[in-house]
Amino acid sequence: MQIRPLLTIMSITLLSGCFSTPSIRFYSQTTIEPDGSVRRTVVFRTDAFDSASVRQSPLEELRSKYTLPAGGEWAEHSRTEYEREGELRARVSHQYTKTARFPSGTAIPPDFRRHGVSHDNVASNDIQISSNRYGFWATYRYQETFADVVSAGGFVSAAEESFEFISDHLGRFIEQISDAGFEHAGVTIRQRYGSMFDEIVDVFVANCIGAKTTKAGCDAEFDNNAQAEPFMELMDLIEEGDTLIQDLASMFPAPPVHSSEEWLDILEDVLEEAACEDCTEWPTYLSDDLFGVHEFMIFKSYPFEVNLTMPGYMISNNADSLSGSTLTWKFSSYQFQYRVHELVAESRIIYWNRFLALFLTMLILGLWLRARAKQTTVGAM
């Protein structure tokens, strides 16, 4: 049996039910004051979108999937209309902003919380800020971690169960396809799409899995690479159910035991069973354990930008950039999929005026003691 055509049909049926492209951006600005108090602003912003082009708008996703910090403010931003397929469509984005102040030593609660398919599964941040003053200097430490519920072990187990689940749903279809049928599908796919699927898989493995995962890697490849264009055309095709069924029928001709009409009905049933409409048929834990609370992210982007302003001079940090006293980290939700993503920084203030005051005090005291000693010596004479 040719495995590539089988993987293709499995991918098409999955994507036909779960494909959407909303994007939500997380931005934070944390300022640590010299007295150790903290001012923190967080912003959740949806990408501008055309509401007619997605099944769930970014705003709906933001409201349903996130526990937003209480007391924030909503704002709406309209963007210049853009031309798409000969039409002008307005684009709009929404923004939720919350600013809070915390006295020195006060615990800062998580302000990023996204829920998975199962509401109890949560990805969140943990913020630890401390300051220590020693009279002549003060040290400030910052640590913020982002973690998802997904783990490497959970991924393997969920992947096995997912394959069994998909196989069960596609079983009636697969059992009726001979080796010759799969070979025919392989030839048809090659003729129609060339090496597109091979290239897409190569890009995904090279840039979107494991330690190599970077915002600049995975997102840039799929957003800007020409390989994505034919794949997006395929996604448009998937949205047209009747056309897709005819397309599958040309890839997988009807077995001898079925007429063309019967085979079309079977293909339609296969898509209805395996398309994962709104992903409600899947066991809820599978999606979270496979991909984390951000779900299947090849066609989604969840960028993070974390800014930190600290007093004094930097001792150590793992930020992407430093401008003056402000550190910046830019990453994607990929970075804390299957592992914890940690941001750390430490700074120090040296109170030179206190050192100077101490030196002057010691100098004056020394001169006074010397003068008194001279007076004592003269009186003795």
Question: Can you put this structure into words, describing what you see?
Answer:
The chain starts with a helix and ends with a helix. The longest helix has 29 residues, at 352-380. Strand 10 (321-323) and strand 11 (326-332) form a beta hairpin. The chain is 42% helix and 27% strand. It has eleven helices and twelve strands. A seven-stranded mixed beta sheet has the order 3-4-2-1-8-11-10, with helices on one face. Strands 5-6-7-12-9 form a five-stranded antiparallel beta sheet, with no helix packed on it. It folds into two domains: 3-17 and 152-282, no CATH class; 22-151 and 291-354, no CATH class. The model is unreliable at 1-6, 12-20, 209-217, 219-225 and 276-280 (pLDDT under 50). With 381 residues, it is an alpha+beta fold. Helix 3 runs antiparallel to helix 9 (260-274), helix 3 crosses helix 10 (284-291) and helix 5 runs antiparallel to helix 6 (215-224).
Main traits of this protein?
disordered N terminus, 2 domains, seven-stranded mixed beta sheet, elongated
- The chain-level mean pLDDT equals 74
General shape = elongated
Order of helices and strands: HEEHEEEEEHHHHHHHHEEEEEH
Strand order of the largest sheet: 3-4-2-1-8-11-10
Helicity, in percent?
40-55%
Strand content: 25-35%
Summarize the main sheet. 7 strands, mixed
By secondary-structure content and strand pairing, the structural class works out as alpha+beta
